[in-house]
Amino acid sequence: MLDVNAGTVITYADNPLTYTVGVDHIAGMSVNGVPIDFTAATTYTVSTVNYLAAGSCNFNDGGVSLWPLDHILYDTQYYVRDVVIEYIPTLPQPIAPAIEGRLVFQ
Questions:
Q1: In this structure, what are the phi and psi dihedrals at residue 69, rounded to the nearest 5 degrees?
Q2: pLDDT per residue rounded down to tens, the chain (106 residues)
Q3: Phi, psi at residue 50, to the nearest 5°?
Q4: Would you kindly state where each structural domain of the chain is located, as residue ranges?
Q5: Contact call for residues 11 and 31 (beta carbons, < 8 A)
Q6: Summary mean pLDDT of the chain
Q7: Cα separations (Å) of 21 from 1, 95, 101?
Q8: How many CB atoms lie within 10 A of CB 14?
């Protein structure tokens, strides 16, 4: 399942517990209210964490990663744990998490 930054909403067409390989589960996506065009002629640059890109943590299908390894253009070696460690002290204390509605299930 994809997750997104603030201002972005992904709408899934079904229950995430019934995921089926080869089926398009995303019904739509928008950034700041503008729908994303997913036509075949459109190309996007995607950033993600290294363990998803490389197929770790069971994000692979028999050794095949989320996308081909030769499509990984750059690895920053800047890990999620380091980002979290640096980010948390910058937040007002105590931290007050909120549900923002970034993921929607139909």
A1: -60, -30
A2: 456 677 788 887 776 666 666 667 778 888 888 888 877 787 777 777 776 666 665 555 665 555 666 777 777 888 888 988 999 999 998 988 888 877 777 7
A3: -60, -35
A4: 1-44, 47-89
A5: no
A6: 75
A7: 12, 37, 25
A8: 14
Report d(CA 91, CA 59) in Å as an integer: 31
Residues in the chain: 106
Other C-beta atoms closer than 10 Å to the C-beta of 39 total 5
In three-state secondary structure terms, 89 is helix
Spell out the long-range contacts of 71-75 with Cβ–Cβ below 8 A and sequence spacing 24 or more: 75/50
Q: pLDDT tens for residues 54-83?
A: 666 555 566 555 566 677 777 788 888 898
Strand order in the sheet with 34-35: 34-35, 26-31, 8-12, 103-105
Q: Tell me the one-letter amino acid at 20.
A: T
How much is the pTM?
A: 0.49
